[in-house]
Design a protein that fits this description.
Elements lengths: L3 E8 L3 E3 L16 H6 L1 E7 H9 L9 E5 L10 E3 L3 H10 L4 E6 L1 H9 L5 E7 L7 E2 L10 E8 L5 E7 L2
Parallel strand pairs: 1-6, 1-7, 3-4, 3-6, 4-5
Antiparallel strand pairs: 2-8, 7-10, 9-10
Length: 169
């Protein structure tokens, strides 16, 4: 069965965006394992806003992957399948299909929904050595604890620490 892997850049104080939606704090001076990660997936899950931000950039570097947008307001998406009903059923069906793993790209609302519904199998967090102080937090307050198991961790010369966790279910 495919795994759903949340792979995201995050600040040390838990933000995925600055207060104005900026992500200029993300390191892009080296690969940080993205090439290998992209080879391990064949599908990407987006929330509506994350998908729109990607399209606004004018280039979709993931166009060769199967893309799914979760939205109650988006009627159609160029190059992606919109999922707007029976989310749990759709996700379970996609996980059962043969192939590689699935990247939960985000955003925060979709990530928190997937966590609440126990759909996330792994977290791959690229923790950047910066404190933004404000912005969009990755994790909302949760009604219960989620236990994680450290699978691996890698330190980069820039101070970025990438840690992979399995979500205990």
């Amino acid at each position: 069965m495919k795994k759903i892997i949340l792979n995201v850049a995050i600040t040390l104080d838990g933000f995925i965006e600055g207060p104005n939606g900026e992500y200029d704090w993300c390191f892009d001076d080296q690969d940080y394992g993205m090439e290998a990660f992209l080879k391990s997936i064949d599908s990407i899950f987006y929330g509506r806003r994350s998908y729109e931000v990607l399209l606004e950039s004018g280039n979709n570097p993931f166009a060769a992957k199967r893309q799914y947008v979760f939205s109650n307001t988006l009627p159609a998406a160029d190059g992606a399948i919109v999922i707007n009903k029976d989310i749990l059923g759709a996700v379970e069906m996609l996980k059962q299909q043969p192939g590689k793993d699935i990247w939960l790209f985000g955003g925060a609302q979709l990530t928190n929904y997937f966590l609440e519904m126990s759909l996330v199998d792994e977290l791959l967090l690229a923790v950047h050595p910066i404190l933004l102080g404000s912005g969009k937090k990755l994790f909302d307050e949760r009604p219960h604890r989620t236990q994680l198991e450290l699978l691996s961790s890698k330190n980069y010369n820039t101070g970025l620490v990438q840690s992979r966790y399995a979500v205990k279910k």
